Structures are given as structure tokens and as C-alpha cells.
Amino acid sequence: MIKKTLLFIFHAHVPYIRQSDENEPLEAAQLYEMLSYGLLPFLRMCRRLDSDAVSFKCALVISPLLCEMLKSSLWQERYGVYLDRHITFAQQELKRTSGTAREDIVRMYLEFLTLNREDFHTRYKKDILSGINFFVAKGCIELLATSATPCFFPFYQDMPEALTAQIEQGLSSFREDFEAVPAGFWLPLMGYDTGLDNIIKSYGIDYTVLEGQSFLFADRPPVNGVFSAAIGESGLAFLGKDSTACADVANPETGFYLHPDYLDTDKDVGFEFDEQALSPLFDVKKGRRATGFCYHRRGGGEYNAAAGALQAEKDAERFIANRNAVLTEAMELLGTDTDPLCSVSVLPLRFLGKTWMEGMRWLEAVFRKVAQRRDMQCALPTEYLKKVRRIQSINPFYASNLPSGYADELINSSNDWMFPRIQKATERMIDLAGRFRNDQGLKERMLNMAARELLLAQSTDWPLMADAQISADYAAAECEEHLAAFTDVYDSLGSGSIGTDRLIKREKEYPIFSDMNYRFFGGKK
Q: Are the C-beta atoms of 57 and 378 separated by less than 8 Å?
């Protein structure tokens, strides 16, 4: 039996952008970048590995909000326009850089964008989720379910009805979008606190993934640390993140992606070129933004794609060597009779393509090199859990994957007005679900709208954007509007007057969760 296992878990999410015929906000770029640098390159990597008969296994979380946007005909059309504009810009850049050192870099971008367009329109016919389902069916990818919106579960522990609504809607969306039955559940921001395992396990979920400190500060610290699974009193299995493995890759000061030979994705022409040069992409007067066109290496000077690719191979070897050394040392300390040990790497999918352009090449190299070894393997979480014979019972500690380790980023001077109002609205929604248990027709639609608005308001996207001062005004306005729309319904129900104009407008702007049932807030039946 191979006793050293690498588990990779990638998560993909973007804030939901309302559907509107008006000009799209700058924040829509996050969706386009997730497609261009995350999902499409990831699927191309999977196809190359599959074509070469290279065994690869990983787990993936795609948030329901991202799935809703991927299925939207409006956003599919807009992404097609985005690709066309960027290809036109690349062609313009190719003429401008002809005969210079940058010509090869531009050709690389043009080929990359053309592949994205071919995959999006021709191979997948705009249905990206079909590509994910294909590799899930082949046993290469395991999908984890998650909540309807990325709410921070520890904040709502004293309101279990709110967590029920988030989980119920999240699972409903999963069943609509994917053909698999989820064994794992992804806690947004990996936020965990005592007792949450009981709620999650009640839905037939087998495991979740926790931060390393949740394991190490547990009431009974696991003998195997984060290198083996543990279990809660409810029967829910826990996998602990290997923080060292993740730091090797993504630490903001020492991570692999900072090597001098890699592309400096912070120096984007969208913030350097003049208005005329950028006109094929966007109107500079409406705000500058990243274009994906970067020409410099992190160490200074012109980027060399061959040097970057070579370094990605070296870093893949370093990553595997580091994991092998750590797992070997753990096995020596624990004895030869120990269960198989694992190293769990948890990374945002967007990081591997946008922040670290060579990241997908690195990941592919890791899969290829591990497949050639006899002492190490990549596996799906469920495959690994089946091999664990002795599993320790623990009560994990409160933690999250935020930089603070807890929730400092979610409640501070930049956003502390949000949660008290969301909490009050949640209490009111629970009250509505109890008072109007069997209503139908227009009243039911209004109550479903209120539930939808509340789920969106509970998203941690808004306080995190405010905390980081990235689109802070946009985040505040979105949170405010969701709360105002919820309050409109609440006040209307109290007065007995229900208007349809607001309802129709909001349903058009947020055509998500079509099976939304406000009774979810009545608690699990």
C-alpha cells in the first residue's frame, strides 16, 4: 500500500453580479478572469493529462453563485465579447511589437486567448460545467458541495435555521448543476466552530476540510496532526489543511510564485498604457483595470516564457520533495504500522492562473511527476478516507482560512455596520418562515425573494471587499441594497400590501436559485 498521499482541493468563487442591460461594473472582470485563467486552462490541463494516460486526482469546489453566472446567457454573451476584444487587442499588440523582444510574449497571449475562445464556443458550447462533469464521471475530479452563498458559518451558530437555509439551497443548486452526489462539504472561508459538524452530517455528508489550527488546537490534538483524517462525535470526518504545503506555493513573501523568472502579474498594461492604446478593451475614463497583458518578470526585465516554464518544472520537483520529506519524517515518528498519511493542499483556482500565470503548468508537472512515483500518489478525498482504519475523535477548534486565522477581516471599522443588520434581517426571515408556513401565489414569491436577498446579503464577499478596500463602495452598495430589498418585503407583509413592481425587477436582476424555498428558514424538517 502506498502510504504517502497528496490531496489537492481547489475552490472557485466570484461575487454575484446582477443581470442588467446597463453597462457592466468593473467587478464583472472577476468572472471573466475566473474563466480565462482558472476554469478553461484547468480543463485543458485535465484533457492533456487524460490524453497522455497520466493518472491525476483532485477535488474541486465551484460555488453556486459562480455556477449561476456560468449558466447565464447574458454573461456567456458578455464573456464572448470580452474574449473578442482581448484577441483584437493582442493582434494590435502583435503589430506594435513586431521585431522586438516582446513579440514572442504577445504571440503566447494570442494563442492562449484563441484557445480560450475555441474551448468556450466550440468545445463546450458555452457550457463549462459540462467539462467539469466529464472529468467527474471519469473519476479524476471529486466535487464538494457548499452553501448557497459564502456566509461565515460560525456567525450563525445561534441561528441554525439560517445555516439550514444556506445548506439546503446549496445542495439543491449542486443537484441541478452536477451529476455527482457530494460526499464532502466546503465551509466558506473554512470557517468552523464547535457543533457545526452535527448540522453538516445531518445532510448525509461524509467529510469537510478544516484549517490546520482547527486540528492542532482541538480538545484532543490528533496524534497524526494534519497528516491523517479525524472524526467528530457526529461521525463527520475532518481533513486538515497542510499549511506548510500551501505556504510553499502561495505565501505572499516566500511562495513559489514570487520567483524572479515568473511573470509579474502586478505590472499590467491596463495601468500603464495610454487611453488610445487601451481603447479596443475598455474606456479608460470609466476606470482602469487589469487586462492580463503583462510583459515583465518578477525579477525585472522582459519576461521569458521558456525560463518561466522551466522554473515551474523545478518548483514542481521542490514541492514533491518537500511533501515527501515531511510525510517520511511523520511516518518515522509514528511508526511503520500507521495508516496512510496525507498532505492536503487547499488553493484558490484563480490563483493558479491569474496571480501565478505559470501555476497550471506547475500543477500539471506535479501530477505527471507523482504519477511516475511508486511511493506517493494523488487521490480523491473519499479514496483516501476509505484507507484510514484508525481514526481519532476530536472536537476541532474555531478557525478560518483568513489571514487573521479567525474573523478579524469580517468585522472591523471598515465593515462593522454590515453584520448587525444582516443578523437582524436573519431573525426576521426566520420569523416570517414560521408565520407564513403554507402561503402560495404572489405572497410565496415575495417570501422567496426575501429569502434570496438575505442569502446574498449574508455573503462574506461584501465585508471582505470593504476590508481590503477593493471595490469597497460597490460592496457597501450591494449589501445595502440586498438588505433594503429584504426590508421592503418584510414591511409589505406587515402592512398587508404587496407590490409587484419591485418583485419583478429583482427577479429579473437576480435570476438565481429558481427553486428557492423560504421555508428553508423554518429549520430542517
A: yes
At 426, the amino acid letter reads: T
SS3 per-residue string spanning 49-93: HHHCCCCCCEEEEECHHHHHHHHCHHHHHHHHHHHHHHHHHHHHH
d(CA 169, CA 513): 8
Other CB atoms within 10 Å distance of the CB of residue 300 = 8
Q: Which three cell numbers stand for residue 417?
A: 455596520
Q: Which amino acid is at 205?
A: I
Q: Give strand pairing partners of 12.
A: 62
CA distances in angstroms from 186 to 98, 288, 465, listed in the order given: 48, 34, 21
* Eight-state DSSP code of residue 375: S
Please check whether residue 460 is in contact with residue 151, taking contact to mean a CB–CB distance below 8 angstroms: yes
Residue 510 three-state SS: coil
Residue identified by cell 521542490 is: 318
Distance, CA of 88 to CA of 279 (rounded, Å): 11
Amino acid at 13: H
Q: What is the sign of the dihedral through the CA atoms of 5, 227, 409 and 264? A: negative
C-alpha cell at 186: 466546503
Confirm if 430 and 162 have CB atoms less than 8 A apart.
yes
What band does 482 get if pLDDT is binned at 50, 70 and 90?
very high
Radius of gyration for the chain, computed over Cα atoms and rounded to the nearest angstrom: 24
- 111 Cβ contact partners less than 8 Å away, ≥ 6 residues apart: none
Angstrom distance (rounded) from CA 114 to CA 91: 11
Mean pLDDT calculated for residue range 35-47: 98
Contacts of 468 (CB under 8 A, 6+ apart): 409
Q: Report the range of poorest mean pLDDT among 47-56, 139-148, 155-164, 487-496.
A: 487-496
Spatial neighbors of 328 by CB under 8 A, at least 6 apart, are 4
Render 199-259 in DSSP notation, one character per residue: HHHTTT--EEEE-HHHHHTSSS--TTGGGS-EE-TTS-EEEE--HHHHHHHH-TTT-GGG-
CA pair distance 468, 439, nearest whole angstrom: 42
